[in-house]
Structure formats: structure tokens, C-alpha cells
User: What shape does this take?
Amino acid sequence: MASGNDVNWLLCIHNIPPKPAYLRAKAARRLAALGAVAVKNAVYVLPHGERQRDGLVWLAKEIEEGGGRAYVCGARFDVSGGGIDDTHIRSLFVDARDADYRSLGAEFQPLFEALGDPHGENAPDAAEVQGWVGQLRARYDAVLAIDYFGAPGREVVEGILAGAGRWLRMKALAGGPGDEVLDPALYRGRTWVTRPSVHVDRIASAWFVRRFIDPQAAFRFDARALGPGDIRFDMTEAEFTHEGSQCTFEVMVRRFGFESDPALTVLSQVIHDIDLDESAPSRPESAGVAALLNGICLCTDSDLERVERGGNLLDGLFEHFDRTCGRAGREGA
Assistant: This one.
């Protein structure tokens, strides 16, 4: 986030007369398009940035020309007063974008779940699926453009997009093959790229890569820069990301052929719980693991350190499951 002259936020404070009636509605639409959130009545905030500043200045000019008053100014919330500080303001943006992503998920998840076998007798037409996928992507991109702090709800929509994209690719294949197990040897010596501010799914995915694919794997946390041979994960249009109801970690375990490993199966359930079903976990260990991973993320902003420390935690957890679930599974076989 740009801080310019040591200013973190931009405020738009306006007083719009009741007439003309369109002016208030127009201002609300402009503020929503910029992703602004209300701090108080008629007081809106945005992260400091050139695009946001230009948008607010232009809106203030329109309000003034319509007979109202509007002010745009820089602000900081480094002193907590009335319960408002930087953390509170950031949470307002995350909650707003999470609500947008949840709305998209609720609208399009039923369409995705109804896809079924792409080569089944009652499979929908590819053009029909491409139509709603295009609509979803356009609306997702619009929300993503104003998702200033990486709201976690985006992963649900990314999962639908990735799963529908895979369905369309399979639909285009005459033979309709299922998942082809990937050869880990083809993915060694590569750099794995993901979004910054990693959390549970990306930490677990990086651990899986280091433990089962390439112990010397390099990671980069800048999704905007891609080089030849880079492998993207847990981001839009990545080689590995959410697919339907599966988080990225589960997708990797499946696509590299480790689904039959009892310890990884249990660990996948834990990561799924934390990433997607925290309110209704399927494993009793999930809440404790979530607390430990949250603690690691709170202690450092370094993505590489999060991956290293989270990897150590997951190493121990895997050994525990391997000695309990894994051994029990092998003895019962």
C-alpha cells in the first residue's frame, strides 16, 4: 500500500442535498466501484493510492457541481479512538470483499455442482458453461480490483473457476480421461510462485512440495512476476489451485497420486477444515492446528519464514498421523 507522505488512508467526507435525487445514488455507485467502506455516516475510507485518490477527487468535484459539499483528505488511524484503528479499518475492507465473494459463490456454486461428468449423457453444452464462467470471471475480476487486503473469501470463487475450467478442458477431450497422475520428477528444479501474505493453504502446499516433490524447491511470493519454468499455486489461473470443494493442498495431493497415503488423507482433512470449513471442522485437531498456524503468521510478515516455520509444524503433524492413522491403516490392510 502506497504511503506517500506518511499517509495510510484517504477519506471522503460529503454532504449531499436531497435534490437532485440522482446525485446521492451516483455518489454511492462511484464509492462502491472504488471499493470504499463507510467509517461513519457520509465518511468513506480507501487505502492511499493514486487510482483511489483520483477517483475520490473526481467524485468530490461532481458532488460540488451538483450543489453538495465534499472533502478528500489523507488520514492515519494509528491512535485508537472510538474503537477505530488501522486493524479495524482493514477488517472493514476484508469483511466487505468477503461478502462480495460469498455472494458470487452462492450464485454460481449450484451451477458448478450441477456440471457432473463432462462426457455424460446429460452434460450441459460447453457454450452454456463458458457463458456463465465468463460472467463469473468478469464479476470476480471487478471485486478483485478493489480487494486491497486479500480477503480469504476469494478462494471459494477461484475454486469454482478452476474446477469449471478443468471441466471445460475435459469436455474438449474426445476420450474424456480422468486425472492423470503427475510425475514429480518433471516439477523439480522449478520455482513455485504464489500470492504474498501466505496462510494455511499456501503454507501447507509449499510444505507438500518440499516434502514430496522437490526438497530444494524455491519459492517466490510475487504473483505479478513470472519467469520461464515457474509453477503457480493457489492463485487465479495457476497450475495448482482450488478445484470445486477442494483447497490447493488437497488438489496437489490428488494430482500427484498421494490420495492413498493415510497420514496425508487426515492432514488434508485438517487443512480443508481450516481453509474452508473452520466453523464445522471434521477433525478434532483442526482448531489447534489453526491456532498454531495463526500464531506463526502473527509473529512474522515474512512469507518465507512463515513457510519454514509452518513446514516444521506440519512435519511434526505428519509424523504423528503417520504413526497413528498410517500405521493403523497398514496393519489393517
